[in-house]
Design a protein that fits this description.
By secondary structure, this protein is of the alpha/beta class. It is 48% helix and 14% strand. It has 7 helices and 7 strands. The strands form 2 sheets. A 5-stranded parallel β-sheet has the order 1-6-5-2-4. A two-stranded antiparallel sheet has the order 3-7. The two termini are 31 Å apart.
């Protein structure tokens, strides 16, 4: 996998008309805002045998900020794709570079959904621990441990679960 800037990806995509830009965010995030000409193939539904391009195709991969695209690139390479490029900083970097995005219906980013869900569960754990039984504090501890694990491994189980929710699939 090659890490490239948004500007470099833009130039490569213009120079090579056979190259593709794959957006691996949820369908909801994609509809909200995406790069013109990108193809939405969510990370959560990756199936190597269902990909619509050849192993020799130059594939540029983008997500919101870079975490999911790196995982998708690894999967592509594990399945024999030769020219895989991870767009550093994702859609956020593309936008920051002043390049246009296609805007649609607004939706909440997956990262924001994870923060809301994790924060809510911590508050519930603390409230139930204080009001009902101290054993409920374990919920807050479990969520905290999950966040540490997510940070260390760059894998978020809660994010993967939320990505499969109906509101992220519409």
């Amino acid at each position: 996998m090659n890490l490239i800037t948004a500007e470099t990806a833009f130039k490569k995509l213009q120079d090579d008309r056979t190259a593709v830009l794959v957006d691996v965010r949820t369908p909801s995030e994609f509809r909200s805002q995406h790069i013109h000409g990108s193809i939405n193939l969510p990370l959560e539904s990756f199936k190597a045998d269902k990909l619509p391009f050849k192993h020799e195709t130059a594939i540029h991969v983008v997500c919101q900020s870079g975490g999911r695209s790196a995982k998708f690139c690894d999967k592509l390479q594990d399945n024999g794709y030769l020219f895989v490029y991870d767009v550093d900083g994702g859609v956020d970097a593309w936008k920051a570079s002043g390049m246009e995005l296609v805007s649609g219906e607004k939706s909440m980013s997956l990262e924001r959904q994870v923060r809301i869900a994790a924060g809510t569960m911590v508050i519930i754990g603390v409230a139930l621990g204080a009001a009902v039984a101290p054993a409920w504090y374990a919920l807050s501890g479990f969520i905290g441990a999950g966040l540490v694990f997510a940070g260390v491994t760059n894998t978020c189980g809660m994010g993967m679960a939320l990505a499969k929710m109906p509101w992220n699939q519409k």
